[in-house]
Design a protein that fits this description.
globular; 95 residues; alpha+beta; five-stranded mixed beta sheet
Length: 95
């Protein structure tokens, strides 16, 4: 499973792959490189994770990993978590 660390801020959030996920992708896809290293999504009002929707999360993972939706699902899906307290904000498992 792809794990994305989320740094919430008042008006948005920064998303980046965890070191373990990076290592997994590097071993699974020999030519893989992490570009971009992070993605920031801002909001015009207070950041509210619950108001965002699933298609946006998949797009963020696709940007961070440079993988297709099918490849992401083959890896077991993805989850977004707070790296400090390990709280899971969103999880999408492979069908």
């Amino acid at each position: 499973m792809i794990v994305v660390a989320v740094g919430k801020q008042s008006n948005g959030a920064t998303f980046q792959l965890t070191p373990k996920t990076r290592a997994t992708l590097e071993s699974r896809f020999p030519d893989w490189s992490p570009t971009p290293s992070s993605v920031f999504v801002s909001s015009s009002r207070q950041w509210d994770f619950e108001r965002m929707n699933d298609p946006m999360w998949t797009q963020i993972v696709m940007l961070l990993t440079r993988l297709s939706e099918d490849q992401i699902q083959d890896l077991g899906g993805f989850k977004f978590l707070d790296p400090v307290d390990q709280e899971i904000f969103f999880e999408s498992r492979a069908a």
